[in-house]
Amino acid sequence: MKALVADSLNEKGIEKLQKVCDVVVDTSITPEELLETINEYDAILVRSRTKVTKEVIEKAENLKIIARAGVGVDNIDVAAATEKGIMVVNAPESTTITVAEHTMGLILSAIRKIAVADESTKAGKWEKKRFMGMELKGKTLGVIGMGRIGSQVVKRCQAFEMDAIAYDPYLPPHVAEDMGVKLYEEQDDVLKRADIITIHVPLTEETRHSISTEEFKIMKDTALIFNAARGGVIDEDALYTALKEGEISGAGLDVYEDEPAKENKLFELDNIVCTPHIAASTKEAQAAAAVIVANEVIDCFEGNTPNNIINMPRIDTSGFSQTTEYLEVCEKLGSFLTQYVKKNPIKELNITYKGEITKLQNKELFKRTILQGVLNPITESPVSAVNATSVAESRGITIKEAEAEESDGYETLIEVKAITEKGVSSVEGTFLHEVTITKINGYKVDVKPEGYMFIAKYKDIPGSIGAIGTIFGQEKINIGIMQVGRDITGGEAIMVLTLDTEATPDVTNKVKELDQVKDATGINLL
Ligand code: NAD
Questions:
Q1: Which tens digits make up the pLDDT trace of 268-286?
Q2: Which amino acids are annotated catalytic?
Q3: Sign of the torsion formed by the C-alpha atoms of 190, 191, 195 and 197
Q4: Nearest of 280, 290, 313, 288 to residue 88 by alpha carbon
Q5: Of 255, 294, 391, 419, which has the most beta carbons under 10 Å away?
Q6: What are 172-195's pLDDT values in tens digits?
Q7: What is the position in ligand 1's atom list of the atom closest to the CA of 206?
């Protein structure tokens, strides 16, 4: 076997690789040279410099694995690799400790005003009175996003004798409890109680500007906020006002809405500590990334399954002619369901395959694709059919599969039930020229899961449908398709809408406030 190390990789990783294969280190290889030589290699290891494009992958007749010594895989054409059956692996855990430690650095620097005191002292000012600090002991840490990094920050803050509370709607409560962290169902409950707020969420539609003007208003005026996750989670204009007006007392940022952040009005303020997106930059993190990916390449060469494969394996589905279509059904059903159960962590997923699909012996790919749909909207690293089960396991989600011959007259049907602390939600779908949802929570419907959707549960009494429709009219949101279903006359009914524009949380809340409405959810399947 032969591996190409195309970007500078820590020696420890290279040494590991050299024990099992020929290693060529060429960290200045040009795109043209890569195209010419890639055919010689079984593995390529990169950081962010080398672009592993579709053209490169097409020429790579022997390539088995592309390894990214880091997290993001923007420089790799994962779809092209998947199509060619080449594994793509990364090292998402390599920076966890490093980023958690940097977060501690920002926190300590801000509360003890170390950066400004350093500047003043070196200028010969000796301003002892100006730099009154604050202790961490006994204070409340509020973590937004208790994943890999968030939990490590908790551990470190607990060593400082802080109390920890958190908001992470996708985390099973027992995981937080085991760490001695009180988990709240609403972000606001954390924001109003915390002395130190630290953000560790991915940047998603849901988290973009999730800390903005209203959120700053409910924080304590003594609170400090830190973001070493992703620029854009905090609304920087709102942060500027909050810091300037004294709505909060301080902040620390490693990430910005626009990077490189060479100019930013936040830099005028002396109650914010700023670093240039270096939270992940330590020798140890680089060494860890190199060792992790080297081990993954070795696993691949030895026929074992690497831990962090992020693309899809080849699983034999030749017994079922509609594999591509039903993989799309699975992805859509998963994505719909995770948004439909809203912020309630899923404890168990029950998948039932009905009809033709049951003839296929190995349905693993369909299960994994459902999980991919469920998990992708809520996780930072890409979840693919390959890593979906391990990500689900780490989130404490149990998966049960069943089969049924009866398929309500459809050739194939797939039903997915999500069990949460709050109850059971289900969705069932098929492929009729396109992905079609046939049932939601047992109610028969016939909708295409795409674009913006809105689901409401309401009392089946005169005026309910009109009242909901009126709110959309008032908010100037055009309804494309409306479908209603009910169990018994006068009982509970469900309304499914497709919308031309998104039902904002504000509109959803207005619908929820109607007496006859039991629940309402906006869903984005764009
Ligand atoms: P992770 O996937 O392990 O954890 C993210 C957590 O956020 C998950 O537990 C998830 O359930 C939670 N979450 C998702 N949506 C949420 C929401 N709307 N509200 C609250 N919680 C939500 O990721 P990680 O490895 O811990 O990384 C966390 C962040 O740090 C990511 O944004 C990552 O890009 C960033 N990061 C930054 C640097 C840097 O250089 N500054 C380096 C590495 C990672």
A1: 999 999 999 999 999 999 9
A2: 230, 259, 277
A3: positive
A4: 313
A5: 294
A6: 888 899 999 999 999 999 999 999
A7: 18
